[in-house]
Amino acid sequence: RQSGYRTMSRVRLKNRRASITVKTVWHQGISRFAFHVTYGYDHDRVREIFIAGAKEGTMLRHILQDAAVIASIALQHGATLEELCRSLGREQDGSMASPLGVALSYAWEGE
After folding, report:
1. Can you tell me the distance from the alpha carbon of 95 to that of 27, in angstroms, rounded to the nearest whole number?
2. Is 92 exposed, middle or buried (0-12, 13-18, 19+ CB in 10 A)?
């Protein structure tokens, strides 16, 4: 183990847990992309995220699903929504630059 690195055990989620699904929109210039986000809660904290909205079998759908899995694993290992949001890309106007960023910032604003 190298000095300066923190390690945390993964929080194991219950098989049944509270969740909420919301519809949100990501704007890219004049384009807009509507999608649904499901947030899974454990101990009143978002611990997992699912993003749906792109057509089945498309690269965008796989990218969104993979990004949500990585974000979920980070949340289950102790990363906060604030840490994730502050680490993701932003547009020149300060808005989130990706659907994952929009989904995470929505949850962060709701904390």
Report:
1. 9
2. exposed
Tokens of 53: 């909205």
Taking the mean position of all CA atoms in its chain, how far away is CA 111?
14
DSSP strands (E only) in the chain: 19-28, 31-42, 45-52
8 A C-beta contact, residue 3 and residue 32: no
Bridge-partner residues for 49, per DSSP? 39
- Identify any residues that bridge with 24 across adjacent strands, giving them in sequence order: 35
DSSP letter (8 states) at residue 2: -
Q: What is the rounded CA–CA span in Å between residue 21 and residue 48? A: 12
Question: Tell me: the pLDDT tens digits for 2-60?
Answer: 555 556 677 677 788 899 999 998 888 788 889 999 999 988 899 999 999 888 889 98
